[in-house]
Amino acid sequence: SKDEGGGEHFVYEPSLHALAEERRQLELSLRDALNNDEFLLHYQPVVDANDHTIVSFEALVRWQSKDHGFVSPAKFIPLAEDTRLIVPIGKWVLRQACMEARKWPEHVKINVNVSPEQLLEPDFTNEVVEALAASGLRPERLEIEVTESIFLRDASIARAALEQVMALGCGVALDDFGTGYSSLGYLRKLRFSTIKVDKTFVQGAAVRNAESLAIVRAVVAMAQSLDMTTTAEGVETEEEAQLIRQLGCDKIQGFYFGRPMTGEDALKLFVQSMRR
Ligand code: C2E
Ligand code: CA
Ligand code: CA
Ligand code: CA
Question: How many of the other CB atoms lie within 10 Å of CB of 124?
Fold first, then answer.
């Protein structure tokens, strides 16, 4: 901790110690996870809000650890970010996702999450170029997803990196919109292709709540006038899907239309629809 001289820190906290130990064990395993082939990607469909056809899949990383079993990304992604292990992991994700997307119909895109640590690496644009080249995927089919947190650190470097990726022809989505430190200033400077409205504005009681509805409506209006599309996240029910469509969101993602699935199952969705 920062204030070592504070004098309160010698109080021994067994539960904190246990947490720190668990974290240390997890970190040790995470260091070997790439070499041990313990990661895989799942893919969640993103559908057109009006006709419900699949327009994209979001790649979501999964860790099947031989030491810890299944570890949720909510747990290991922050750890990977703190330790910078997210840089090689993210590189692997990008390559793997582009390779998989190459198997899908040409109009279907792939969304890939990128952490600030990864984006701020000087080599990031090169990694995108290499992932596209290795897979043969057209740049227009790749949309990376970043959260507002990238602007908290090195805003100008983040912006430059995103502009380079856009110059390649790729899209950039602003993820979890409305949950972070929302300064709208950067929306003026960066042409995001998509704004992803966070699930807290969409789910359950939220869509029956006048304030949430007003916010979604305002975000959609703002996105439209800035020539950006909107995706609503976390749609779990038919009612939510209808409301979201009425509010004018372009795309929908959520358990109602499909849970994250293996690459094999994602591919089957297209084979089925081609047979129809
Ligand atoms: P995210 O980018 O906001 O991804 C959406 C999360 O919401 C996923 O959780 C997804 O399974 C979940 N979700 C989708 N639809 C619904 C729904 O209808 N209801 C509910 N309750 N949840 C839904 P997941 O896969 O556990 O990922 C959690 C977070 O971990 C992601 O949030 C993202 O921030 C991070 N993450 C996942 N994969 C990667 C990756 O490859 N790289 C990086 N940097 N971060 C990743
Ligand atoms: Ca995301
Ligand atoms: Ca999100
Ligand atoms: Ca998130």
Answer: 24
Residue type, 190: L
Q: Is 93 in the pocket of ligand 1 (CB under 6 A)?
A: yes
Q: Are 77 and 42 in contact (CB under 8 A)?
A: no
For ligand 1, whether the C-beta of 241 sits within 6 Å is: no
Ligand 1: centre distance to CA 222 (Å)? 25
Distance CA 177, CA 231 (A): 10
For residues 140 and 145, what is the distance between their CA atoms, to the nearest angstrom?
A: 14
Question: Tell me, what's the ipTM?
Answer: 0.98
More confident residue, 172 or 3: 172
Q: Which atom of ligand 1 is the closest one to the Cα of 235?
A: 18
Beta carbons of 216 and 249 less than 8 angstroms apart: yes
Helices (H), the chain: 14-33, 73-82, 86-101, 116-119, 124-135, 155-167, 185-189, 210-225, 238-246, 263-275
Distance 165 CA to ligand 1 centre (A): 22
Give the strand pairing for 39-48 and 251-253: antiparallel
pLDDT tens-digit series, residues 59-91: 999 999 999 999 999 999 999 999 999 999 999
Euclidean distance between CA atoms 254 and 47, whole angstroms: 9
Q: Look up tokens 């699930």; give the residue.
A: 199
In whole angstroms, what is the distance from residue 27 CA to residue 69 CA?
Answer: 14
Q: Give the whole-angstrom CA distance, residue 123 versus residue 222.
A: 33
Tens digit of each residue's pLDDT (9 = 90 or more) over 254-263:
999 999 999 9
